[in-house]
TrEMBL record:
<keyword id="KW-0075">B-cell activation</keyword>
<dbReference type="GO" id="GO:0005576">
    <property type="term" value="C:extracellular region"/>
</dbReference>
<dbReference type="Pfam" id="PF00727">
    <property type="entry name" value="IL4"/>
</dbReference>
<dbReference type="GO" id="GO:0042113">
    <property type="term" value="P:B cell activation"/>
</dbReference>
<dbReference type="GO" id="GO:0005136">
    <property type="term" value="F:interleukin-4 receptor binding"/>
</dbReference>
<keyword id="KW-0732">Signal</keyword>
<dbReference type="InterPro" id="IPR002354">
    <property type="entry name" value="IL-4"/>
</dbReference>
<feature type="signal peptide">
    <location>
        <begin position="1"/>
        <end position="20"/>
    </location>
</feature>
<dbReference type="InterPro" id="IPR001325">
    <property type="entry name" value="IL-4/IL-13"/>
</dbReference>
<dbReference type="InterPro" id="IPR009079">
    <property type="entry name" value="4_helix_cytokine-like_core"/>
</dbReference>
<dbReference type="GO" id="GO:0008083">
    <property type="term" value="F:growth factor activity"/>
</dbReference>
<protein>
    <recommendedName>
        <fullName>Interleukin-4</fullName>
    </recommendedName>
</protein>
<dbReference type="GO" id="GO:0006955">
    <property type="term" value="P:immune response"/>
</dbReference>
Amino acid sequence: MLPSLKAALALLSLLQLISSRPLTTTSPKLKLSEITHRIQQLNSGVQVPCNDTRVAQVTFTDRKLSEQELLCQAAMALTKVKKCEKDYEPFIVNLKSLHGQTTCSLSNENEIYLRNFLPELGNFTQGMYRRLAVLAAQ
């Protein structure tokens, strides 16, 4: 009985681990689409989770920085949101897989509210999605 109980507990733990991890897609277009869609879902709700949390401002319009650097900075900014970590974990996972970098630089000099950060991130990822679609069509 003890070995079967151990096996059942191990299986239960494995199922819990699998269900707690966000599903990630493999295509960059699908990842960008998922980020944009999740932002729209959050903004359509009554209130963005932790909307008054201040995060480092990412200058998405800075053409001196690569898209990968900006994606890395966005992921880094969202990792600072500890209170609503579960709400933003899917964003972080997709952003990290899109930029492929391990480190990036992000200044905490300028901060903005999360409720203002998310639409900027959504616009940026939507623009990237459109550029990928145009490149794929050519």
